[in-house]
Fold this protein.
Amino acid sequence: MLLVVLLTFIPMAWAFVLSLQVNDLISPPRYVGLANYRALPGDQELRQAIDNTVTLIVLVVPLELILGLGIAMMLNQRIRLKNFYRTCFLVPYIASAAAEGILFAFIFDPQYGAINAMLHGLGLGRQPFLESPDQALYVLSAVYLWGYIGLNIVIYSAALQDISSEVLEAAAIDGAGAWARFRHVVWPTVLPQTVFLAIWGLIDALQLFDLIYATTKGGPLHATETVAYYIYELVFGGVFFAAGYGAAVSVGLFVFTLLVVVVVSLLERRTYGPQL
Amino acid sequence: MSDVALPVAVPSSAAGAPPRRRLPFSSWHLVLMPLSLIMVVPLIWMVDTSFMTNAEINRYPPAIFPSGLATGGYTEVLQNSDYPRWFVNSIIVSGTCVISQLILCSMAGYAFARIRFVGRRIVLIALLATLVVPFQVTVIPLFILLHDVGLIDNLGGLIVPYLTTVFGVFLLRQFFIGLPGELEEAARIDGCSHWGVFWKVMLPLSKPALAALAVITFLDTWNNLTWPLIAITTSHNYTVQVGLTSFESQHHVEWAAVNAANVLTTVPVFIVFIIGQKYFVQALSGAIKG
């Protein structure tokens, strides 16, 4: 317990102190008050990093939930190969982001990649993918979704198993169509999981770093730089050594994360009453 | 022939439709099969190309299967890089973290589940709240802290932050709460201390939860890139993930070797997953019900 306190609460307070300093981790720090925070709004690179992170979240988090629930519902039917499918969907989730990033850098390689070989074979033009500022973020969002969706499928599957098939059959006999059965039986059951997975998905996407590092390192032209990657580059990237300013950005990320979590839980509580 | 309205669940779209030729399998397979292929084919391709020569990979159209089992990629990784060393480092770090978490998380989880102490609820909520704190916030002070005690560029610095985790404590707390209290009461009446109950009654019962925690901790620490990347500065001390990314940037078009390194990095994860899949899935789906 002490360890957790030592390694989370103290660094949290420390991060805030750091954010009030100019600190390069080598020479003695100098207090500058809120100057780091005042510099945040004018930081163009930060603005782009925020744009990229928000784009990623908007592209990925809703799909995680919709596809996750959809696939879990398909797997909840009485079909063969259920375990085979479940394993297939979970396998990318357990591989490391570094391994996946490098694998997809290979698959999407402009010269030697399998995707471009297929496009070329179909008579379509080769695409630069990760080397294009216009395409890289979308490719990485897809790869990220590919690697993440397994978690949602597992958790939704477990929730769906709690719905007895008698309830669904009874609803069907009472004349409930597919949509009504979903709306009034399935959806209320999986709502707590949906809130949890939405929050978890947001937190995970807000902190996306490793996949970016293993593929584009934020490029080309900062097109795939996330906020988490920007912080890394500021502090540890070997160029800026701006630990104070980096800490200020990280405190901003923390406040934003907290805000998102609170808003999502409040929305859920307002619409459906306290459940969690 | 199917004009009689039967009082059973008939899919509404099928009612009144002309008799169709039925597929010999559920139509859901038409959706599920392509989707699951998208999930596994990239990984199969990784293994496949790791046994090709660079010439086979780089020609157009690329070979689908290697002409023979070319192991040049593996030789390159194992003989011309620090990869074996990185692999041993990762085993040391992950192994230590797994053992430590099994001990510390189960003790803390038991305390939160069964021992009444002042402020238990508040401490638990505070701990859960830390799950929301981004790693980027704590990483800078963590780096300074471990730098001051000399654990940067040291495997110890990779282990210390993962000796125990809030997730692990919570996972085991949830499990202990689900065990019937009568067992412990009986043991207490027979004169067992908290410690005795924990060792002799609770732990033997919690093998599934401990197995799940072991699998999750292994995956978490083995797959971690961010922290070792920051905390380790010399190649000798890299873990597999950091080594893999550095190897990739140094061997940019030698895809056979890069894919071989990638396979070596990923295979342990799959072995652990196959052994522990049942517990892993149970824990993931059970942890959020509490």
